[in-house]
Automatic annotation (TrEMBL):
PROSITE patterns: JMJC. Keywords: Dioxygenase, Iron, Metal-binding, Oxidoreductase. It comes from the Bacteria. Residues 98-227 form the JmjC domain. It comes from Amphritea atlantica. SUPFAM superfamilies: Clavaminate synthase-like. Pfam families: JmjC_2, WHD_ROXA. The lineage of its organism: Bacteria, Pseudomonadati, Pseudomonadota, Gammaproteobacteria, Oceanospirillales. Its cofactor is Fe(2+). This is Cupin domain-containing protein.
Length: 385
């Protein structure tokens, strides 16, 4: 595997010319990739209560579309038609640790932009129909063949069928028509129209998906975060009020005062940074309790280290990011929580954010370092082998 998954195109060139701009087809991007989850395992995952899955079935002429949401049962699969259906399972990397390895090839995008690995299996003719997403996605063909029609930018106002439970865009002329074979990869930017159609009976696609918060989510989350910390005495004030001609007028001075309320919170870097770190590392499935049955203490970790090195692994469903603070301090954000560290713990934090596992050898570790590991372990963001 070369350093760049884009063949002759370097990662820098990809970011400059394609990322969020235009689609890119890469033949043989992952020639040796052996998919850790096959069709049977995928169907097995879709039977699980906590796993998010969908089954999309269409009539062969494309007039009728049906969607069902998991968890499914064995009958669901026994009663499927011969062709024109697809099963899609979200966050496969959360459930199958080996599946998360492919994500490491995409770490040139910041951790916090990553969403999940979705895996789909399609029969001949199966797919979710012509649509666009608001996310960047890398589609890796792992088995069988899929035809991809790609092109054009779309948005909320683009014409679509009103009578289908999945987005089926009408009035669409794709610019590209590509058949992907195992190992090939296709990058699709947000809002670019695409339609993947199973071109064999065993079509499997791994989708490495990225997310970008909407402005609505950013505004709501930030104002909630600030609002929760304020007392009712923090209020609009106007000791400089002067007589106005019409009491009904909202004067420009009032508008300016409200603007200053907003900007005072926005200009506080520490607060804005803390909100952003917590917001972007919130787990995808916060309702899943990942905490260990038995919490660990610093003394227990020290004791365990006497027996040998310890390997701490980031929970596959966990999000880790950090930001550099003032005076050499670092803020680690893990699953929506903030840990402020300094000194020798900073290197531990940057290592934890850089790679999915860290080996703690039998050397010298401070209480602060081991406390951080204990805290992350106890909140379920790290586990040990
Ligand atoms: C897929 O069917 O594997 C990809 C679905 C999509 O285009 O979003
Ligand atoms: Co899509």
């Amino acid at each position: 595997m070369s350093d760049s998954p884009f063949g002759d195109i370097s990662v820098e060139e990809f970011l400059r010319d394609y990322w969020q701009k235009k689609p890119l087809l890469v033949r043989n991007a992952f020639p040796d990739f052996e998919a850790p989850v096959g069709a049977d395992e995928l169907a097995g995952l879709s039977l699980e209560e906590d796993v998010e899955s969908r089954l999309v079935v269409q009539s062969p002429d494309g007039t009728d579309w049906q969607i069902q949401h998991g968890p499914f049962d064995d009958d669901t699969f026994a009663n499927l038609p011969e062709s024109h259906w697809t099963l899609l399972v979200q966050a496969v990397d959360h459930w199958v640790p080996e599946a998360s390895e492919i994500i490491e090839q995409f770490r040139f995008i910041p951790n916090w932009r990553y969403d999940d690995l979705m895996v789909s299996f399609a029969s001949q003719g199966g797919g979710v129909g012509p649509h666009y997403d608001n996310y960047d996605v890398f589609l890796i063909q792992t088995q069988g063949k899929r035809r991809w029609e790609v092109g054009g930018f779309f948005d909320q106002n683009s014409p679509r069928r009103p009578d289908t439970p999945v987005m089926i865009m009408t009035e669409w002329e794709p610019e590209h028509n590509w058949i992907l074979e195992p190992g090939d990869m296709l990058y699709i930017p947000p809002q670019v129209g695409h339609n993947g159609i199973g071109a064999s009976d065993d079509c499997m696609t791994y989708s490495v998906g990225f997310r970008a918060p909407s402005h609505a989510e950013i505004m709501r989350s930030f104002t909630d975060f600030i609002g929760e910390k304020l007392t009712s005495e923090s209020r609009y004030t106007d000791p400089d009020l002067t007589l106005q001609d019409n009491p009904g007028e909202i004067r420009p001075e009032a508008l300016q005062k409200v603007r200053e309320i907003f900007t005072s919170y926005l200009q506080d870097d520490a607060r804005l940074g803390e909100w952003l770190g917590k917001f972007v590392t919130d787990p995808k499935y916060p309702e899943l309790d990942q905490r260990p049955e038995q919490p660990a203490t610093v003394a227990e970790i020290r004791e365990a280290l006497k027996e040998g090195d310890l390997c701490f692994i980031r929970n596959e469903g966990s999000r880790f990011s950090y930001s550099a603070g003032q005076d050499g301090e670092i803020q680690l954000y893990a699953d929506g929580n903030c840990f402020k560290v300094s000194g020798s713990s900073c290197a531990l934090v940057t290592s934890l954010c850089q790679s999915p596992l860290i080996v703690i050898n039998q050397g010298e570790w401070s209480d602060q370092q081991l406390q951080l590991l204990a805290d992350l372990y106890n909140q379920g963001s790290l586990y040990t082998e």
